[in-house]
């Protein structure tokens, strides 16, 4: 990681430490403590190995989820992680409905194992984030872990681009059972980086999930170092050479740009939503194709992929119409012989497998988190930055998921991010601003800042701020 930063490595490390140190300053009443399970879980997502206990395939991140499921469930039921809210109910229904569908379609003998894993990866992951990310400090530590994971994967991704050798899969494969090496034609003379995941686009999607988070959480605290971190994240996404992953970054960049340009505009997000809705209906009225068909036709690197995705959407929706309630589980979906079995659309796969209710529960969970967080007011600057980063990230992932299916670690990461923002619904978790994060009001009184960036000060205040980060 240090070698990648070259002349800016000190800035990158400094920004990471600064963000963590400043987050610690927001809680004066007690010393923030963050469970080591957060970085352990994050790095476990990037482990490509798996093993079997009986017929059940387990991986490092699944071990963490299985070990913590009961404690997290008890904490949730007891109310110690906050009161039950709409996203909790929707994610619980998504897990229960999906499990019921798998057992109903495949029978108890075959479906029970898959149902259990689905519950653990859906509701278990959500509860894990609910329990262990309870304040701004824990959220920023989570972002730090995600950034470090991506920075650690970047040199291996570049090596894979240049040499054509999936080095991480090969190294882990010497000892453990790992994913198969994904085959693909080179793009722009480079091999698409697979990283530690099952497919190139999954690697790109995972890296793209850190783009807006790193920008808002680190970029606001140490401008040069924070922007450098975001640049490295973008390099990791680009190494996958995947249109879906790049789409996620483009969407996040556009939302960040809108946030900056319209900072003084009232109801700016409502204006943006209205503009997007109007554009959708405008395309619908002026094209002989559906807006979604038009959308996906421009989001691939070649015309063949675009053509196939249009047919996947067409026959996939036919399957949904034929099995609208209970879906087909893991059964093969009906399609022409010339059309492959891969369905590159997470939302479509969800509707095909678990029916329309399953789709509505998961999509509703994502919408309820984004819309609910968007309605919060009077947030401190740090909490507001965390909220922006999370909502922008979820919007980018939601749109990119129309061009790629998410499974295993990338799916778990999406659910984990949904649960990671639930602490913001509880004002008691926002914390009290530290002296270094206060602004002087009239007559020498102190007043907490809201959504304004920190004021740079020198002298004793600056010395106090640096002491919080461990710098001398």
Automatic annotation (TrEMBL):
Pfam families: Wzy_C. One of its GO terms (molecular function) is ligase activity. Keywords: Ligase, Membrane, Transmembrane, Transmembrane helix. Residues 232-362 form the O-antigen ligase-related domain. It comes from the Bacteria. It is a multi-pass membrane protein. The chain crosses the membrane at residues 34-53, 59-77, 89-108, 114-130, 142-159, 165-183, 195-218, 230-258, 265-283, 354-376, 388-407. This is O-antigen ligase like membrane protein.
